[in-house]
Structure prediction request, 185 residues.
Amino acid sequence: MVYFYVIMRIILSAGWKERSMPDKNLDDFWADTFRAAGLRLTPQRRLVLETLEASREHLDAETLYAHARARVAGISLATVYRTLTVLKKIGLVEEHRLGENRSYYESVRNVPHYHFTCLRCGKVIEFSTPLVNQIERELSAREGVQVTCSHLRLSGYCTECLSAQVESPTDQQTRRFVEEGDCSR
Prediction:
């Protein structure tokens, strides 16, 4: 718990930044990305992208399907899965494993951002920080490597869960991992 608090204080003191959209019209941006990949922006692909964009949260495939189907009844779950595979491949969608053992998706932004997941309620907090870029530069300078991708995923307890002061068996197990110095869970 102390580790989480220290890390979040460092991140927040470095500056919390909102994610921003590409400068171009979003539809043109999507069309250009598909064209560059030699693919077409079909109505189904556009629907999945629009649904992700409208939600502004991380959705699993089934929830994304339910939201998309509410807009266009003819889309199938298989189409959503196939579309997500294509969108990941061409860089318009990111897949994350947040908390539980299932994938969540979000549309890609032009500002790198990271995730904090509450171990109790599953709340996801997005943040960006220049500290990750600083670490990448220092590693490159010291080791002579070229960093092409970085992922930072923090987990702990959100403010609401901390104030609830109710500890579940899962929380007890997590506390044991942290006390033993292994929070790789």
In short: Residues 111-185 form a domain with the Dna Ligase; domain 1 fold (CATH 3.30.1490.190). The chain has a mean pLDDT of 77. Residues 130-143 form the longest helix (14 residues).
